[in-house]
Amino acid sequence: MSKCPDNCKNCHEDCGSNLKPLSRLQTWGILLLIAVIGCVIAFFKQNAAASKTENVKRFTYPCMGTIVDISLFDSPENAEKAAAAIQKELKKIEDMCNIFNPDSEISKLNTSADSKPFVCSNELYSLLKYCYNAYEITGGAFDITAKNLMDLWGFYRKRNTIPSPAEIKNALAKTGMNKVVFNDDAKSVYFTVKGMAFDLGGVAKGAALDNAVAAAKNAGAQKGIINLGGNIGCFREKQDGFFEIGVRDPRKRNAIIDKLQIANGFCATSGDYERFVTLNGKKYSHIMNPLTGYPVQNMCSTTVVAAKGIDSDIFSTACFILGREKADRFIHMKKINDVCFCSVAEDDSFNYSHSFNHITKR
Questions:
Q1: Which residue in 29, 80, 143, 282 has the most C-beta neighbors within 10 A?
Q2: How far apart are CA 124 and CA 204, in angstroms?
Q3: Which comes out higher in pLDDT, residue 258 or 115?
C-alpha cells in the first residue's frame, strides 16, 4: 500500500499501488504522521486500580498502510512472544486483503470471479460471508462491492470533476452484495455482473485485530492494547480497571472530544477528515453510500465500541452512512447489544447511543 498510482493531488491519503516505491524514510514519515493524527487516539493511562510499577513493553511498525502500536503489560520475554504472534496474524490478514497487491488472494478473486467461481481459502470465505451478513443486516449500508464507486470518485484514480449521473448509475450497476453468488460447499464466490470487485478496506483492520488479540492471549499475554491506525483492541484477564481511549475531535486536529473507558473490547472510528477528495472546490469524504452512489455528507465521525473488532469496523462505517437517527434506530431495532456508538454531525453536535455507557465501562 504505497503511493497513489496517479500521484493525484486531490486525493488526501495514499491510495496504494505497486509503482515507484517510497523511500524508507518517506514511508516512516508518512506513517508516523498518520499515527499522530489518526481517528482514535489511545491513551495508555489506566485507572487508579492499575499498578504503577507493572512492566510495559511497546512495539511499533508499519502495517496495513498505517502504523500498529502495541503495548503489552508483561515481562519482556512474554511480551516479545505475544508481539511476534500479533505481527504474524496482522501480516496474514494484510497479505490476504490487500487489493493493491496483484498477488493477494482478494486481488486474484477480483480479477477472475466475474468469469467463473473463485474458490477461497477458509479464512477469506468466512470473512466474505460475514460481510454479506452485515450487508443484509444494515439494509445495504455496509457493502464491500463499492470499489467501483471509490474508483469513480477519484480515491484510487485521479479525477478532477464530479461524476455525472450516468457514470454513477453505471458504477451502481456493478455494486451490491445481492449480485454475488456464494457456494458454501465449494467455498466459492461468483460475480454475476462483469467488472464487480471487493474492497475490504472497511473490515480488514477489525478482522485483523480480532485475530491479533486472540493470538496474544494464546501466547500468554494477559493485558494489552493494540492500536492499528485508529482501530483499537483492548484486553485484560483481570477486571482490575480499564484503558482510556480518546476520541478525536473531527474538526480540531490533536484535540480530544471525549474519552472512553474500555476493559475488554474494540473500537473504531469512521470520519470525513483524514481521507477525502476535492472536486470542483468541494471536499468529498471517502465513505461512500453504496445505496446512492455518492459520498456521505452531513456527518463528521462515528465511533463504535463492540465486543468484536470486525463489528466495530463494520458498524462504524454503517452508522456513518445511515446517519445518527437511522443508526440509533437500527442498533435498537436489531437488538445488537454488543455494539454502541457516538457520533459527531456536521453541526458539531455530539451524541451517544443509548447503551454506550453500559458497553464501554463494563
A1: 143
A2: 10
A3: 115
Q: What cell does 102 get?
A: 496483484
Q: What are phi and psi of 77, to 5 degrees?
A: -65, -50
How far apart are the C-alpha atoms of 224 and 342, rounded to whole Å? Answer: 24
The residue written with cell numbers 499475554 in the block is: 221
What is the distance between the alpha carbons of residues 35 and 274, in angstroms, rounded to a whole number? 11
Which is it for strands 339-345 and 223-228: parallel, antiparallel or unpaired? Answer: unpaired
- Domains of the chain from N-terminus onward: 24-76+225-360 (3.10.520.10)
- Tell me the C-alpha distance between 182 and 184, whole Å: 6
Alpha carbon distance 3, 12 (integer Å)? 11
Does residue 98 come out as left (phi exceeding 0), alpha (psi in the -120 to 50 range) or beta? Answer: beta
Q: Within a 13 Å sphere around the CA of 302, how many CA atoms are in the beta-carbon half?
A: 29
Confidence class for position 215, pLDDT limits 50, 70, 90: very high
Task: Please write the tens of the pLDDT for every residue from 245-254.
Answer: 887 776 677 7
Supply the pLDDT for residue 229.
Answer: 87
Residue 51, phi-psi category: left (phi > 0), alpha (psi -120 to 50), beta (remainder): beta
| Residue 27, CA atoms < 13 Å, CB-side half-sphere | 15
Range 352-357 contact pairs with CB under 8 angstroms and sequence separation of 24 or more = 353/327, 353/328, 354/328, 355/331, 356/305
**How far is it, in rounded angstroms, from Cα 350 to Cα 346?**
10
Write out the E strands in 167-222.
180-183, 188-191
Place of cell 486531490: 10
What is the spatial distance between Cα 282 and Cα 277, in angstroms, rounded to a whole number? 8
Q: Which of 140, 228, 225, 212 is nearest to 178 (CA)?
A: 140
Grid cell listed for 218: 494464546
Name residue 150's amino acid. M
- Give, in degrees to the nearest 5, the angle at Cα 342 between 333 and 309: 80
